[in-house]
Amino acid sequence: MNAYVGTPTSRVDGRAKVTGAAKYAGEFAADGLLHGFVVEASIARGRVARLDTSEALKVKGVVDVLTHEHRPPLADKDEAWKDEVAPEKGSPFRPLYDERVKFNGQPIALVVAEDWEIAKFAATRVRVEYEQEAFSTDLESERGKAEKVDQPHKPRGDAAAALTRAAVRHEADYVIPTEHHNPMELFATTAVWNGSGGLTVYDKTQGVQNVQKFLCSVFGKEPDDIRVISPYVGGAFGSGLRPQHQVVLATLAALALKRSVRVVLTRQQMYGLGYRPMTIERVALGAKPDGTLDAITHEAIAVTSRYEDFSRNDTGWAEQLYKSPNSNFSHKLVDLDVSTPSDMRAPGAATGVCALECAMDELAVALKLDPVELRLRCYSDRDQSQSLPYTSKQLRECYARGAEAFGWSRRNPAPRSMRDGKELVGWGMATGVWEALQMPVAVRIVLTANGHAEVSCAASDIGTGTYTIVAQVAADALGLPIENISVRLADSTLPQAPVEGGSWMAASSAHAVLGAAEEIRWELARLAKAMPGSPLADLDAADVTLTDGMIASSDGRGAAVSIADVMRHSKLERIEKEKLNQFAEDKSHARNTHSAVFAEVKIDEELGIIRVTRIVNAVAAGRILNTKTGRSQIMGGVVWGIGMALHEETVMDHRFGRIMNANIAEYHIPVNADVHDIDVIFVDEPDERINRLGIKGLGEIGIVGVPAAIANAVYHATGKRIRRFPITLDKLLE
Amino acid sequence: MNNFQYSRASDVADAIRLLAADPGAKLIAGGTNLIDLMKENVERPSRLIDISRLPLRDVEETADGGLRIGALVPNSDLAYHPLIEQRYPLLASAILAGASAQLRNMASVGGNLMQRTRCPYFYDTTTPCNKRSPGTGCSALDGLNRNHAILGTSNSCIATNPSDMSVALAALGALVHIARPSGQRTIALTDFHRLPEDKPHLDTNLGSGEIIIAIELPPHGFARNYSYLKIRDRLSYAFALVSVAAAVDLEGNAISEARLALGGVAHKPWRSLEAEAALRGQAATPDHFGRAADLLLQGATARSHNGFKIDLARRAVVRALMQAASATPQSQAHKKIA
Ligand SMILES: Cc1cc2nc3c(=O)[nH]c(=O)nc-3n(C[C@H](O)[C@H](O)[C@H](O)COP(=O)(O)OP(=O)(O)OC[C@H]3O[C@@H](n4cnc5c(N)ncnc54)[C@H](O)[C@@H]3O)c2cc1C
Ligand code: SF4
């Protein structure tokens, strides 16, 4: 009985979004609202020696200038500043805490005024003197200082020896620059002062409860004092996982001034938030002549800040994906005078798999093997890192379906062999892999006698479609038309949810909805059975389903009572049930999504112009709850992958430790002209083990493998291997 | 952004008066460049003189058969103007190669000529930059200079002029009409922008108190054999690494007249009469085009990151001339290079 799950249901919040009815954090009004503008440090390391706010305070309309010397108290223990997703090691950044400058672009003051423009103007009147200290922001020059992080990697066999004896060997560095998320919506917070010391905080975040707990601990507040709401998020991609500067600053100002305050970061200021850290990925592969791997080593060296150790699993993918008896992995960090990196779409995989899959392509060339064939020879039905079977893994099918749709069999393997007029044509491919995670999420359903249900949960919808899938699952489970379901999300007072990230929210929220709906069904069955002359009297609660507004026997003999009748008879206006999802603990299986990406590029070699004319992305990710929003997710990932391959790079001048392209005119992402055909294929992947609905999640997998497939296509077109991303024309012309 | 006064000019004379009255004043037309720079605190005008409503929006034929284009004609109106499309398609193409549709709707002809460099240091007030703060030094010389100039540079500044439209105007031999307190004057577009020398804070030869009122195109528009080829880091909506405006007249396969200008390589649109002269009378072959490119690029020098531009420019010139000669101009809608 799936009227909605698995169908291309349109977004339930689509109309609100396109008509402007959907309100974002920076759009909530409040009486007497003040506006804060952030003053940032312009050095990479040192201390603020003098901060003179007197000129700024003289500007008409300025209410106050908050600084580390002039602010309400802030918690002094690191623990208080550690949010749900803070790195384990380190001391989180504290805005306006003291005079230390830890990175360029760090907030050092907040000008609060009656008007945003006034605040912005007055910000230019804040005089700052620094004591600068020697600093470094350059990963490549500091590479030698890299330190290994603890990771549960188990080396297998003797990789060094196996590499030495390998019949065919490939080893290279792949360099992926720092990248920024650049979500469309600016980071914003409106902190509404409610008179009695409490605050309602509208924030752009991926986790309202994370922000709520964080604010309470940072400002020493009771849980009831602060409520955090974030009904819509205009993209975040990981940048909104941790509470960001603006929410601390808006809250700080509201508490200091006992007024409502809004702080909106500018696009430029958002480059002071988290980012995908630059990594140097060294991959070595040793193969036997038959194209099976005998050795894999993968070392990733990534940027982190001096105050926190942020690291992601760049090398874990090489560890699990391909069969290889000998392997060794290490992840290293270099501390630099920069802000702490953050998760960014498929963190660790977008980069680590990019390096691995470029290396696999180079190995295929060395072995004179078709790149798909090489992957099939190294294919593993078990997760190699833990030697576990998968709950499901249809990667083989991804290769087959993707290759078929792409026309891979017509590929001439020789580089520079395919042409279209003046352009060289290149075909490349890569594997993608991500995790299928699930987290504790609770959902409350309130069913009313008129046949409507409200489903609520603190989870965010960061544009991924959570509103829609929650409505779909609820409509199916309650047997109601989707129009009768209203969904409330992202309010910290609603049932528990972690941050929305890691592609875990679809499975987690859907199963919480199922659980709560089940309790409603039991309650309805109990009530229905108790009605005099009930046709369901002799049935177990387990033997009824909810369908078309009826409680009906599941055996199809037609016995049914309408929900409305049951509730009227029981004199109930509403039935309310809240349930935490439950997933069976299962350490015996690995859980992953996979993909096979095929890319076509056309290159004007003389001028170095690359066009990505086709991408086929065949994805195996369990059951697809909504083929329309799901397809959008994958397409978005592919577009981003094009950007990673060809455009994206945060450029720093290491003499100043400053980002020099902190705006989206100069920080390039793909524009329409850069995006051509994208074909998304969902490979059937029934999975009865992972969870009841067989859901794995789709947020990240779409980007993984795309940059490598494009880089490999560029090689196939030109015979040039570019291992330093993005692949810009100067590198091609070199 | 600083606090500023705002006045709306009632006519050109009023605008000139307002300019003369306040040395810190700036004209504002479409605002697409000026406002960005104000937000970054790079421009801090004491007063904005809004000229956007002045009656300088006409495209008129001149007595000698050329066209006179008002300084406030929006870039998009100009690109799609029937007379421009038919008679000066090189100009239409160059305009459409720049910015985005939304920006072109706002941008004016005068503002486009006056737009400032995209050098990242110029935009970042915390870094030294001779153009923004004379005498502080040039951060680009030994810094990030991948998209900086290779021609006509000085030790004070290696910035490029980012305008696409100006490159076509330079090739077409356009004139700039300027109003000033003492009347009007006219200068060639190729003399309008200047080289940085030791005064990089001056982008153009427009004097303080002067206003661009129109540009004028000579009668000959090279409507048959032209191409505007722009090479950039993504297929649209990016400033040129190198761009070429190429136009030729052919008699059979022989070139009777040639025009060639480069964008993205210097502080001004780069034209070389010598290179054009070398093409005259020659057959339209890649060899001859290559020789012209060499002449055009004579003296090109690179800094640490922009060396690729020299070779790229040469190739782009040859390709653009090929496109022009074969009457297959680069399409700005389809990004495949012809
Ligand atoms: C994201 C982005 C991308 C862009 N990409 C490109 C590109 O690829 N190619 C390209 O060529 N351009 C590009 N541009 C620049 C765009 O073309 C210019 O911003 C625009 O042409 C400026 O015109 P305006 O009328 O808005 O000028 P304004 O911003 O109003 O003014 C700019 C300057 O001109 C002066 N001025 C204006 N009118 C006159 C006049 N009549 N007489 C004297 N001085 C005057 C002003 O005082 C000011 O100093 C881009 C801009 C942006 C923001
Ligand atoms: S190149 Fe010119 S604009 Fe750029 S930093 Fe140097 S002086 Fe300034």
UniProtKB/TrEMBL annotation, chain A:
Residues 140-157 have a biased composition (Basic and acidic residues). Residues 19-134 form the Aldehyde oxidase/xanthine dehydrogenase a/b hammerhead domain. It comes from the Bacteria. Gene3D superfamilies: Aldehyde oxidase/xanthine dehydrogenase, a/b hammerhead (3.90.1170.50), Aldehyde oxidase/xanthine dehydrogenase, molybdopterin binding domain (3.30.365.10). GO terms for molecular function: iron ion binding; oxidoreductase activity. Residues 137-160 are annotated as: Disordered. PANTHER family: DEHYDROGENASE, XANTHINE DEHYDROGENASE. This is Xanthine dehydrogenase YagR molybdenum-binding subunit. It comes from Bradyrhizobium yuanmingense. The lineage of its organism: Bacteria, Pseudomonadati, Pseudomonadota, Alphaproteobacteria, Hyphomicrobiales.
UniProtKB/TrEMBL annotation, chain B:
Signal peptide: none annotated. Keywords: FAD, Flavoprotein. Residues 1-222 form the FAD-binding PCMH-type domain. The keyword Flavoprotein applies. The keyword Flavoprotein applies. GO terms for molecular function: FAD binding; oxidoreductase activity. PROSITE patterns: FAD_PCMH (PS51387). Pfam families: CO_deh_flav_C (PF03450), FAD_binding_5 (PF00941). It comes from the Bacteria. PANTHER family: OXIDOREDUCTASE, XANTHINE DEHYDROGENASE SUBUNIT C-RELATED. This is FAD-binding molybdopterin dehydrogenase.
